[in-house]
Please model this.
Amino acid sequence: MIKMIALDLDGTLLTSQLTISLRTRQILYRLRQHGIYIVLCTGRAINAIVPYLNDLNLFQADDFSINFNGAVVSNNVTQEALVQSALSKDDLRPLYRLAQKIQAPLDVLDFKRVYSLSELPQSTYQAALGQLLEFVPTTFATLSAGPFAKVVSKSNAKMTDQLALQIPETFHHQFHIVRSLPNELEFLKPGVDKATGLSQLLTHLNLSPANLMAFGNEQNDIGMLQLAQVGVVMANAPAAIKTYGSALTTSNDEDGVADFLTQYFTFLNN
Model:
């Protein structure tokens, strides 16, 4: 029986205008009232998704979110971490040297703010997030020892391609590397992804993957799509991602989440 629904944000729950449709909000609210956990799973910090938590009224004592692509499981009410996985400054040194070599931008995130490395080219990360997080210009030399949730390189797709091609094989043992958007690469602690965060949350709530439904559309959603009993891929997902789900739905701009949920949970049609 499905008791938890995990939802990626960009390209899945959110429309192209970065909003949650009224129909989707109403359906998710009914499911939560029915006792089903609604869990937002994102690369963003908990404080950066509060507007969406407000839209869905996800502020019961046992409401949680998966943040930083699985590095943190956060309580929505207290914003405290149930689980936290971190990188140190020493962990970041090889990545910093590569970014220097090819002149790629880097933004380093702790669990509250973003440190933009000012000696590297400017990223587009702040422009994408707006005022949702505090951005602090700094240099790698003055960066603290950590802990850090993740590192983001966000520029244009051409630069992201170049960085991806330059990543040495050893990096795949030092980081979990995901391309969350065509122009964005993220570097997390090895073994950390949305699936690991969800697994920890399921255990905390005395549930199992057999109780999980997940929706996603990008590379950083693959783990949770595979973990879930029902893994639903959006029509707007790249073709390669669609092979990892057990079901397909319509696009994020066609109420794909709402469409699938009303088909699966028949009581929603009453």
